[in-house]
Amino acid sequence: MVRVVATGKQGRKRSRRGPAIGVVAAALGMAMLPAVAVPDVAPVAKAEQPQGKVLRVAVTQDIKKLNPFQGTSLVDTQVGRLMYEFLVIPNATDSTPEGALAESWTPSQDGKTWTFKMRKGVQWSDGQPITAKDVEFTYNQIMTNPGAKDANEVAVASFESVKATDPETVEIRTKFVNVAVIGSVGEIPIVPEHVWRDKVAGIKDFKNEQTPVVGSGPYVLSGVESGRSVTLKANDKFWRGRPKVDTLQMVKYENTEAASQALIKGDADLVYNLTPAQYRTLEKTSGIKASAGRNRRFTEIIMHTGAKKADGSTWGTGNPVLADVEFRKALDHAVNRKTLIEKVFGGYAEEATQLIPPVYPDWTFKLSDDKKRNFDIGKANSILDAAGYRKGDGGARLDKQGKPITLRLLSRNDRAEQAQMAEYVKEWFGQLGVTVDHKSIASSQLNDDTTSGNFDLSFSGWSVGPDPDNMLGQQLCKLVGTELGDTNICNPEYDRLFAQQQAELNKDKRKETVQRMQQMLYDNVSAIMLSYDKLLEAYRSDRFTTFVTQPQNGGIINNQSGYWGYYGATPVGETPPAGAPKAAEQTNSDSDSSGLGTGGWAAIIIGAVVVLGGLGLLGARRKRVSADDRE
Amino acid sequence: MSQPLLEFRDVSVHYRARAADTTAEEIHAVRGVSLSLAAGEKLGLAGESGCGKSTLAMSVLRLLPKSARLEGEILLDGEDISTMSWGRLRAVRWAAGSVVFQGAMNALNPVHRIGDQIAEPIRLHGSLGSSPSTSAVDRRVAELLEQVELPVERARAYPHELSGGQKQRVMIAMALACEPKLIIADEPTTALDVVVQAQVLDLMTRLVEERGIGLVMISHDLAVLASTCERLAVMYQGELVEQGESAAVIARPEHAHTKALAAAFPTVGDPVYRYAPATSSPLGLPEAPSTSDDEPAEPLLRTEDLRVTFGGTHAVAGVDLSVAPGEIVALVGQSGSGKTTLARAVLGLQRPTSGSVYFEGERVPRSASGLKAYRRQVQLVLQDPTSALNPRHSVYEAVAEGLRIHKVPGDEREHVAAALEAAELRPADRYMSVLPHELSGGQRQRVVIAGALALEPRLLVADEPVASLDASVRGEILALLLRLRARLGLAALVITHDLGLAWNIADRVAVMFRGELVEVGAVDSVLRSPSHSYTQSLLDALPSASVLGR
Amino acid sequence: MTTNQSPRNSPRAVAWTRRRAALGKVWREFAANKSGLFGLAALVVIVLVAVTVPLWLDREVLSVTRATGEILAPPAGDFWLGTDHAGRSVLALTLWGARISLLVGISAAILSVAIGTIVGMLSAHFRGWTAAVLMRVTDFFLVLPALVLAIVLSTMLERGVGTIILAIGVTSWPSTARLVRAQTLTIETRPYIERAHALGGGHMHVLSKHVLPAVLPLVLANTTLAVGSAIISESTLAFLGLGDASTVSWGGMLKSALDTGAVTAGAWWYLLPPGFAIVLIVLAFTLCGRALETVLNPNLRER
Amino acid sequence: MADIPATTEPAAEAFGGRRARGGGQSTVRYLATKLGGGAISLALVAVLGFFLFRAMPGNPVRSVIEGRGSASYEEIKRIKAEWKMDEPLWTQFVDYMGDLLRGDLGTSIKYRAPVAELIGERFWWTILLTGTALLLAVALGLLLGSRAAWRHGSRFDRWSTGTALVLWSVPTFWLGLIMLVVFSVGLDLFPTAGMTTPGGVSGGWFAELLDVLHHLALPAITMTAVIYAQYLMVMRSSLLEEMNADYLTTARAKGLRDNLVRRRHAVPNALLPTITIIFLHMGLVVSGAVTVEKVFSWQGLGLLTYEAIGVPDYPLLQGTLIVLAAAVIVMNLLADVIYRFVDPRVRSA
C-alpha cells in the first residue's frame, strides 16, 4: 500500500501536467465552473481544432501495447502496421502479397528456403538505411528472445533460421515445406536494429512510447496518452512517399454511440464498428460519408460436437446430440440467415457458408445448390424425426434417452449483435422443440467455457488473414479441447489435406485442396456459419475526400491487413499520395440530414425532464410541521 | 406601590396541538394567570410537570413555539411583551430579562467555548459600547466567571468539559452578562446533586440580591423554593391556585394540591414523617416495625468485599452490605458515588471485579444459567418507569414477561392478575390490555413493580424508584413498598440520593461515598446524629425548610 | 384453564387488536404525507401492471421472429411508443420489463436487508469476539467497492436473474447493518432491556421480544429505500453487460438501445421510456420509504 | 468539613482532570486502533482479491494471444509460465504476498506495464472527476439542505428536496447519455469524450487547464446531479434534529437574529454528523464512478478495473481493488480525524 501511494505520486510527476493541474484547478475553479467554463472555454477548444491535415480516428477497442513484439489487439497491430514496414504486404486490390521492404522473393528448389531481395535506398525515419540486418535482427528476436514472442511467435513457428547473407538479401529457412511463409512475413513488422539492439534484455517491459520512435511505415509515433490516444506524424522518409495527412490520431471512445456523436459533432473524423442504426443516421447526415465495407470477418455458431481430445479423452459437458451430424444439419436448416442479416445487420452482411470470406475469392469454393442447406423448419423437423429424435409431450424434442433437449447458447456481452441473434435462434430452435438457454457473458468467460467444453452452442467469429493456412489450421484434430482452435471438430482426412496444401507450391493445386477442405467442413456441419459482416464506417466527407479501401472495391478502411486506408487518406483539396493505390468510386451518396435533429432531441428531453421533475415535486410535497419553534 | 418589574395580566397560552390523526385540538397550557413581581423580588413558581409553569416563564421573552398563542398582557418594566415588534423584542431579550435554563447541559451550545457563549450577548446588546474591544469583552467574561466562582481559564473550556454544577454556574454568568433587571430560572438545579444544588442556589440568591435583580424561580420542589424565595405561587393545570409569603404557604397550604406538594417533601428528623410517606390511599399505612440497630443473624443478601473497577476507576471499592429478610435498606449517596453500580453487581447485571454476593448464605453464581434461578428471587425496579417498560408491550405482556422467561407453571393470566392486584392496580382486568403510554407515571411504576412481584421474589432492588415521579405520586409508591413489606415480607434495597425517602421508609441506611460505605446504621441514628462528615454534608445541603430537630 | 376467558379478551386477541389499531395509526399518518401517498399510488400502479401484464398482453409481443413493426420506427399507429431494434413495441417491452426490474429490486433489497439486520443486531447485542468478528466483516464489506464485487460475483456465478439478485444483495447489506447496529445499540441502552435481563431473560429473549420488534419498522423503511437502490444497481449491471440477456428488463432495454445505436439514430422513444420507468419506480420507492421512515422511526417522528 | 466542598463533584472533577491530561494520548490510541483495523481490512482485501479474481471464469492467456489467428502449445505454455499460472495456487499466493509486502503490485497482463504505474496514471484523473463532483455535491447539498431544513415545509424545501430526490432516482449512465446528447452534441457546449483534447492544446498551462475543465464539466455535473441528494438529505435531517435543541432557545433568548441562530449555532452542530457521512461516502464514490467514466470515456480507475475484469487481469485487478479499498479506508480515517478535530466533545473524550 505504501508503494501505491508512492507510485501514485510518481505517476503524477511523470504524466503530463493535466491531472496535477486539474486537481488543483478543480478546487479553485469549481464554483465558477458551470458559469465560466461553458461559454468561455468552448471557443478556446474550438480554436484548437486541427485544420484539415489531422485525421482523428475514433476507436472503441483498447489501446494497450505499442511494442510491436507484444501488441496483439486490433488497434495495437494497426498502429504497428503504420509505424513499421513489412517485408511484404497484402495489397489493397485483393490482399495478395506485394513487395514492401522486399522487392522480390523466390523459393529454393526444395521449397524450404526463401530468399528475399531488399528494396534499395529505403531509410528509417532517422535517416539510417534499412538493411537485411534489421530483418534478421527482428526475426531472430521473435524466434529466440522469450520477451519478444507474444505478438508473432506463430508466424515464425515453422522457421528454422533467418539470415542476412548480405545487406540486401535475407534467407529464411523453414523446418518443412510451408507455402504460408509469404503470408507470415506479411504479419511481422521490421524494427530498426540500431535502436532496439540495447533494448533486447528488457524487451518484455519496453513500452516503445518514448517519442520520436524511429520507424519505417507511413507514420511515426509522436505521442501517447496511455490508454486514451495515440498520435502519429507523417513519415517524410516513407518509401512510397509522404502521406497527405500530417497527423493521425487514434482516440479511444468507450462505445460507438460516443464515437458517432463525436463524428457528428466534428470531434472525430473517422469512425468504424458502427451499428446499422447508427450507419443509417450517419448516412443521411450532411458532411459525413458512410461506407459499408466488405470485411474479412465471419460470424458463426460453434457446437460442442463431442470430438475427443488429442489424447483420446472426452472433455466438458456438451450435449451428446450435437455429435450427430444429422442433428447439426437440422439446426443449420433452422437458421434463417436472411432474417438475421436483414434484422440484426440491417442488411449489411452476406450469408456465410465457409471459413474463407468472399473478399479472398481465390480460396473460396462454389457451393452447389443441391448441397446447400436452406432455411426450412419443416425440413429440419423431418430430419430430426428421421434421425430418431421424437417429439414428446408439449412438443419438446427428446433425445435418444427420451429426455427433452436443452442446449446452452453462449454469446459475448460486448457484441450486441450476438445477443440479438441469440433471440432469433432461440425462437427458431424452439420451433424444432429444442429449448435454448441463452447466456450473454464476458468474452473471457466465454473463452473459458468453450475451452473447457462447458457449452453446447456458442457464438464465435474470426477475422481471416489473406493466407488461408491460418484459418484452416484452426480446425485440426490436435486442437480439440484446447485454448486454441475454432470448431473443435476432428477429421483425420481433413488433417491430411491440411498438410498437403501447406507443402503445395503450385497455387492452383493448393486452391483446389483448400476448397475441398472447406467443402468437407460444410458437409460435416462443423459450425453453423451465419454471416460475413460488413464493417460499417463513416467519415467527415467535408474534411476528407477519399480513403483507400481493402479490397479496393467496396472494402474496408479500418481493420485492414495493411496500411492503405490511413495512408491513402486524402484531405479536402489535396491529391492522394503518390504511392497509394487509386481509391475506388464510393457508392454512398451524401445527402442532407433528415431524422430528428439534436435540437429536437434537446427539446424532447428537456420537456420530459421538466414534466417528470414536476411530478416529483408534486410528490415531494411534505406536510408542514406545525410544532415549529422558529420565529 | 411603584410599578412592578414584571406583571402578568390575565395571561393565557394555547397550543395548537396536531395529533397524529391530524385533528387539530387546542391545549390550554396557561389559563388566565395574573401575577406580578416587584423589582428585586424573588418569586417561586411551583407546580408539577405539565402544570404550565415553564410555559408561563418562557412567555416572558416570547420564547414560545410557533404553535403557541398568547393572550393577555405581559408587562416587563411597563412594556407589553406580547405586542412588541421583533426588533424591539430582540433588544429586550437578555438585556432586560435573561434566563437560566433547565438542564444547562443542553442549553449551552456544545461546539462553542463557554467564554464565547458568555460574550455573545455582551457583543450583541452592546453592554460595553457598540463595538467593544476583544480585551474589554474578555475582561468582562473573566469578571463574570469570577463572580460565579469559576476559574477564569475555564472560559476556554467547552461545555462538556464542565461538571453539571459548573455548567449551571456558566448559565448564571451568562444570565448576568447584560446586567438585566430580571432573571428567570427554570428548574435551575433539578439535575444536580443535593450538595451542588445547595451551592448553586446559594450563589444565585446571593448574586441576585447583591444586584437587586428580580428573580422568578421555577421548581417542582416546594422546599427548594421556600428556602430561596420570599413569595411562592403554585400552579395546577394551567391555573394559579395559590400565592403568598413562602413561610405561610408552606406552613398553611390552602389548596389541596399545595398541601400534597408540601407533604411530598418530608422533613428529615421529624418523627411525623417516619414510616409515613404522604399518601391518600384508603389502604393506609402499615404499623411501623420495631427496629433495632443489631445486624440480623441470617441476612437475606450479603455482599463481601465487593469491588467493581472500570479501567482504573473504582466504582465500587470493597463494599460489605447486608439486607435482612423483610428489611428495607436505603443506599444513599450522590451521583457517581457508585451506588447504581453496586446495585447492578448485586443483581448480577455487572460482573464484579472481585468479592462476592451471597443470597441466603449461598454464593451467587456468575454463569448465565446459575443467575437465572437467582433472578427469580431478586427483582429490579428502575428509576424511570416510562423507559423501563417496552412501549410496544401491553401491561399484560410486561407483567407476564418474567413468567414466560422462567416458564412459571400455572395459569399465566391468574399470575398476572395477582401481581397487578398486589401492585394495587385494580381491577387488574382493566389494565391488562393497556399500553404504557396510556398510563400515568405512578401507574407505570406500579406495572414495573407488578412485573417484579409476578415472580414472587424475596428482595426488590429499587434504583431511585420515585425520582422521576411527580411529588404527589411519590408518597403513594413508597407507601406501596411499605405495605408490600408488611404483607409479603418483601425485603428491599432502595437506592436513592434523597435522604427524605430514607427517612420515609427505610429501616437502615447505608451512605456511600466514592465507592465505599462510609456509614451504615439504623435510619434514626444515622440521620439524626451522623458520625461521618460526608453524611453531615448531605444533611446540610437539604433545603433549610426540610431539616428539623438538629 | 381458558374456560372463563372470552376470545376477545385473550392476550393474543388483545395483542392483535392493538396491532390493528397501531397499523391504522401508521396508515393515517402515512396518508397525511402527500409525497408518500404519491409514491404509494405510483407503486400500486406499477406492481399491478407487473403482476397482471401476462393476463392482457400476450408474451408474443416479446418475440423477435414474429415482430410486426419496422425497425426503430417512431411512435405511430399500433406502436404508441415506437419500436425497438427488432421491430417490437417499446411500450409492450416496457410493460413486461417492469416484472424483472421489480423482482430483482425487491428480492435483492430483502436479501440485503435481511443480512444487514441479522449482522447489525448480533454485532450490537453481543460483546467480545462475536461482535468483533461481525464488525470486522461489516467493515470489510464496507471497504470493498460494491460495484466491483457485484460485477465479479455476477461473472462468477451462473448467469441469470438469481445471480443478479445475489450479487446486489450480498454487496449492499453493510449500510443496513450499520443502521440496525446503531438502532440496536440505542435500544439496548433503554432500561427495559436492563429490566428484561434482571427478569432473567437470555439473549434470544431480549433479541426476539425487544430488539427485533423495535428495529423492524426501521428495517421496513430501509427495505423500501433499498429496493430503489437495487433497481438502479440492476440497470447499472445491465448497462455494463452483466445482466440476464434472456429476459426483458429496463436496464437490459437501455443496454440494447445503446448497443444498437438508438442515441445516434435519434430513437428517443426507445431510450426514454425505460429510463423514465426506472426513475419513476425508484422515486416511488424512495418517497414511500421516506414517508414510512418518518412515520415509523420514533426519532424522526418526534419532530 | 473543610475537605468536603472540594470533593462535592467527585465524578466530574476526577474525570475532567483525567480527560484533560489523557486526551491526546487516547486520541492517538484511538487512531492507532482505527489504523490497525484499516490495515487488517486491507490485508483481508489483498487476500480476498487474490482468490476471488482467480475464481472468476476466463483465462488471461486468451488476452495475451487475443487478435491472433492461432497459437501453439509451446506458446501457451510459455505464457502461462511467464505469468506463473502453471504453478500451484498457494505458491502464486505466497509470491504475490511477498511482492506486495515489498511494495510491488506486479505487472498487468493486459497492458504489460507495472500495475502501480497504470494505477498511478489513472488515479489522479479519477480523483479529479470524483473530487470535483463531490465538492460540488457537498457544497450544493449542504447549502440547500440547511436552508431546506430551516424552512422545512416551505415551498423552497419542497422544491429542493423534490428535485434532489428525482435526480437521485436517475440511473447515472442514462443521465450521462442524455447530458451528452443535449449539451455536447445538441448545444455543442462540451466535448463528447475524453479528458483532454487528444494531442494537447497550445497556449500554455492556462489553456491546458481550461481544456481539462472543459472536458471535466459534463461528467462532473452528471455525477454531482446524482449524488448531491444524499448530502442534502443528510444535512437536512441533521439540522432538523438540532431544530429543537435547547441551546437554540438560549441563542434566541439572547436576542440573536434568526439567521445568526442558524449560522452560528444550528449549522455548526448539524455539520458534525454530516461530515462523517460525507467522508464515508467519498471512498465509495471513487469506485462508483465507473458508469460515468464509461459514458464519457473518462479513463479513470473505475474503467481500468472494469476493463481488467474482462481479461481477467489478475495483477491489475488485485492492485485496483487494494487501491479502491484503501481509498475508502483513508477516507474513513479522515472522517474520524476530522470529526475529532471539529467536535470538541469527541476531541477530548
Q: What is the CA-based Rg of chain B, rounded?
A: 25 Å
Shape of chain C: elongated
Question: How many E-type strands of chain B?
Answer: 21
**What does the main sheet of chain B amount to?**
6 strands, mixed
What is the architecture of chain C at the second tier of CATH? Orthogonal Bundle
What structural class do you assign from the helix and strand content of chain B?
alpha/beta
Low-pLDDT runs of chain B: 546-550
Radius of gyration from the alpha-carbon trace of chain C, in angstroms:
23 Å
The CATH C-level class name of the largest domain in chain B: Alpha Beta
Figure out the total of helices of chain C.
12
Oligomer: heterotetramer
Q: Cα distance, first to last residue of chain B? A: 41 Å
Mean pLDDT of chain C: 85
Instruction: Identify the biggest protein-protein contact and residues per side.
Output: A-D, 123 and 124 residues
Identify the CATH homologous superfamily of chain C.
Answer: MetI-like
Topology, pairings included?
The complex is a heterotetramer of chains A (631), B (550), C (303) and D (349).
Chain A lengths: L1 H13 L2 H13 L3 H16 L5 E6 L14 H10 L4 E3 L6 E3 L2 E6 L5 E6 L13 H13 L14 E8 L2 E6 L6 H5 L7 H4 L22 E7 L3 E6 L12 E6 L3 H10 L4 E2 L4 H8 L4 E6 L3 E7 L21 H9 L3 H8 L4 E3 L25 H10 L19 E7 L3 H15 L4 E7 L1 H10 L4 E7 L5 H4 L19 H11 L4 H17 L3 E7 L1 E6 L3 E3 L17 H4 L2 E2 L26 H23 L11
Chain C lengths: L10 H21 L2 H23 L33 H36 L2 H16 L2 H11 L4 H11 L2 H15 L2 H8 L4 H37 L10 H10 L8 H29 L1 H4 L2
Helix pairs in contact in C: 2-3, 2-11, 3-4, 3-6, 3-7, 3-9, 3-11, 4-7, 5-6, 6-9, 7-9, 9-10, 9-11, 10-11
Chain D lengths: L9 H45 L5 H5 L8 H10 L6 H13 L13 H36 L4 H14 L3 H15 L17 H39 L3 H8 L4 H31 L1 H6 L5 H10 L3 H29 L1 H5 L1
Organism (chain B): Herbihabitans rhizosphaerae
Keywords (chain B): ATP-binding, Nucleotide-binding, Transport
Pfam families (chain B): ABC_tran, oligo_HPY
